[in-house]
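Researcher: Next entry: Amino acid permease (Streptomyces achmelvichensis).
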Amino acid sequence: MSRTSAPAPADRQDDVALSHGLKQRHLSMIALGGVIGAGLFVGSGAGIAAAGPSIVIAYALSGLLVMLVMRMLGEMSAANPASGSFSVHAERAIGPWAGFTAGWSFWFLLCVAVGLEGIGAAKIMTGWMPGTPEWAWVALFMLVFCGTNLAAVKNFGEFEFWFAALKVGAIALFLGIGVLAITGVLPGTDAPGTANLTGDGGFLPNGTDGLVVGLLASVFAYGGLETVTIAAAESEHPVQGVAKAVRTAMWRIALFYIGSMAVIVTLVPWDDPKVVEKGPYVATLDHLGIPGAGQIMNVVVLVALLSAMNANIYGASRMACSLVARGQGPKALGRTSGGVPRTAVLVSSVFGFGCVLLSYWRPNDVFMWLLNMIGAIILVVWIFIAVSQLLLRRRTEREDPSRLVVKMWLYPALTWVALAGMAAVFVLMAREAETRTQLLYTGGLTLALAAVGYARQVRARRSQA
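Model: Predicted structure:
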């Protein structure tokens, strides 16, 4: 038996009537494109402004943590492909309350993110077409991607394939231009050497405090990789698909992120105001005199936002459907038609559009309250992934080791290293005033969901008894 042909798990817990229309090329691009969004193209500028050239170290450290998390998730998802992904794994390893907490918190995160991405995409469109209302653009985008997700899953896969291909192509081209400029080969440029890396305050211009801010920004920029393990359950060959997608995506994404940051801080002074105002990619291309750089990157950022909207509606609907299939939510959300959970797609889209309306009606209280609640959810999810992997690995080795077609490196040592890294990020968040607020709100949401999930678990046990 090959390492990617393990038998289908017999204890799959979210066996819902989903189709299997995703191909390997879809999964590979979902894995690559899901994490490449506006957070990288625009949001990374704030991290560079805080950390200076040391942002490269920040992205390298957070990238290592994410690679460990994805390896753990890949191991569990290859052994037990499920549309509920880490929620299913947490339920199997820890208990129903853990699956409930991880699943619904992630659903909430994705739905709010859909609204945020819609707002960002609408701002770009109103910049091109002044006088048009932002809400109308958001409504249009929501209708398009709600429609895409209501159709067969292969339509979602095709959209994401081409969206991701454009984003990956843009970053690859940027890296190529950057390397030519750094070596002095690009016409009209001189090799900068290490002037921008060691001058103007040095490699750590704002000390370790700046590095910490950059590290926190980089950790959350990597969010989005989890979608590929959700999508794998609807692929033609779930075990082989998730195994290959996880293996190939990790090092490529690390190359894109860390490589991009290295090119930017080598070519552009870290304290150039354009890095924050226009975004680091536009600032770098402007610095090199590339014509039309701003508009080119606006198109790429727009595609990145639309891609994220599409992927997040998909991920939210599948997570909700999986939770319902396991008795963790209202039955209406679990209805499928033509292999698609259409009710879950509609509810997830409506919730996302509701977040957009809140941003207009109550931007300073209710909407900020929502944003703070999702601030650290991805870390909560990662902790559930690590704890689940610690427990399930032993169980799988004992019961059916043939399912371990992807294995966590140096188990259990690196799993504990990853957990220690997550705990360190929580401590760093508690030190910063802005992230401390997010930590408190996310903590409140997590505890509330855990309490509800545990109460449901106790009630279910009593009813069975």
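Model: Note for the record: DSSP finds 19 helices and no strands in the chain.
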